[in-house]
Amino acid sequence: MSSELIIAWIYASPVSTAIRDMFWVVPTVQSVHIIAIAVIFGAAVISDLRLAGVLATDEPMRSVIRRYFPWMRAALIVLLLSGLVMVIGEPDRVLVNTTFWLKMCLVVAVFTLAWSIRRPLLRPAARAQGDDEKPPIRALAWLSIALWCVVIFCGRWIAY
Amino acid sequence: MDIQSILQALEDTTVAAWIRESGSIFPNLESVHVIGIALVFGTIAVVDLRLLGIASHRRSALRLIQELLPYTWVAFSACVITGLLMFASNATTYAQNSVFWWKMGLLSLAGINMGIFHLGAYRRIDEWDTTLPPPSQARVAGFCSLALWACVIGLGRWIGFV
């Protein structure tokens, strides 16, 4: 099955047609998407800045990470669902766009990075000794923030 | 000088023309604007949820506000700068967009809400700093803030659709 056929099939579907016919759906879903971006980016930046030793250094790393990771996970789900609506609504514009696919790869990469830095601290048996900001963790936390920014740039550039 | 000629003059500046003529500057301004929005709303939401009684990464509301507000202000400045540049590039057109003015109006209300909180319940924060639930004034301020900022974001998106 060629990609053109898949795109045409999605485009012709009742769901896709409905999304395009109801003019308010796309801007509303985009607004939800932006709010979820704010949640994931805010939660990521605050916890990454703790990992980098910049913010809330008087609070244990473990508790800061645990406070924000559930929000990151929930926001990711909202982002994927709202993103799916936009893909289904305009498959001809989105699925042929290389920036979109670059963004998808980056989302997988950055969330995998964010999760792997946090995993040792999320485990119930996490020991207090892991609470210093070792150099690899600091650099990875800053890299994570930078990658989220690139994802946001890609997101905007899809439309161009 | 009337408003129309001021707007036209703004649109005729070198910077505005440069933004219009370059294909990449406007999308990059928008991207920085989105990063700014994400940090403004993200940090404000953490404080607002605390004002609603949902604990954050620290118990003290005062310390949380002191810790996060600098980030909120830096992010907001980025939004204002990128917003002004984007506005300038098509000043006469944006000025006629009613959704844009609704956004400015709600933004002002969000600011007024913040001001009322800082002059009111915040002055007495020692009394309720680590106790939950927070006083009703704080909860109302937190709720209004979340609602207003979410609407600002929605209207921001709608600008491009009308």
UniProtKB/TrEMBL annotation, chain A:
Transmembrane segments: 33-56, 68-88, 100-118, 139-159
Keyword tags: Membrane, Transmembrane, Transmembrane helix
Domain of life the protein comes from: Bacteria
Every DUF6644 domain range: 29-160
Entry's Gene Ontology cellular component terms: membrane
Classification via Pfam families: DUF6644 (PF20349)
Protein name: Membrane protein
Automatic annotation (TrEMBL), chain B:
Signal sequence region: none
Ranges where the DUF6644 domain occurs: 30-161
Matching InterPro entries: DUF6644 (IPR046586)
Protein keywords: Membrane, Transmembrane, Transmembrane helix
Keyword check for Phosphoprotein: no
Transmembrane segments: 32-56, 68-88, 100-119, 140-159
Keyword Manganese appears in the UniProt entry: no
Full protein name: DUF6644 domain-containing protein
Species lineage: Bacteria, Pseudomonadati, Pseudomonadota, Gammaproteobacteria, Pseudomonadales
